[in-house]
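Hi U.,

Before I forget, here's the chain from the pilot set. I'm dumping it here mostly so it's searchable later in email.
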Amino acid sequence: MPWDVRELQRYLVSDEFVDGDHPRVIALAEELRARHPAELDYARAAYEHVRDRIAHSFDAEDPRVSISASETLTNGVGLCYAKAHLLAALLRRQGIPAGLGYQRLTDDGSGFVVHGLVAIHLDGAWHRQDPRGNRPGIDARFSLGEERLAWPVRPELGERDDRRIHETPLPSVITALRSTSDVLTLRHGGLPGEF
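Structure:
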């Protein structure tokens, strides 16, 4: 069923966490759009900027806590959730509907962690993108065809996708990020495990 224009408007709103109205987010969006005027090219450029130029906190061993899009851009680092907030803000700022998505993942099947993604509405459909950041063993790519996420879900281990497209971050994500002054402490048991 196609999405109504009024429904899509909800995914263009700037808020406390997806703050596309922040001057730094506006400046980056305008810079990227000037170099990539076509909608698809802009979406890809915004995705690649966040994936490649904003470090993942755990990969970088950086303890700073980023929650909003503007904090993530200012700090240059964030967890998957913060990177998703930034990508969604950049897309929304340029009129591309963007929502937040989540996966429930595990390393070994004994405990679960919610992983943050972005859903982009282009060419009449939603397409999930994973701006987490690549490293050996992770090769996420911008794709409007087959999903190229950091991790495919393994149902046999209890992993699952949350196929809802959220306008705002999960409250459990915000609570976890606000619970610490050192994001690295969340690596072992501090991140949400359920949607």
